[in-house]
Amino acid sequence: MPKLPVVSSKQVIRVLQNLGFEYAPKRGKGSHRAFVKKDNNKTHLVIVPDRKEIPKGTLLSILEQAGLTKEEFIKLL
Question: Would you place residue 28 in the very low, low, confident or very high pLDDT band (cuts 50, 70, 90)?
């Protein structure tokens, strides 16, 4: 299993937008940004904190919310 790299919120947001997630300004609060993607009958909501370095636990949570594996995310970087 590949190791997760240290990434910024800008890098995570770029990957999410490339996957079709759209910015949802009314859902994010403060220093957090929200992104939404609708698949068939399911809606994925991903909250990304605005940070230079996202902690690994937070990144894993973001990947889970987006329905991505570590390998898929690393390929998309």
Answer: confident
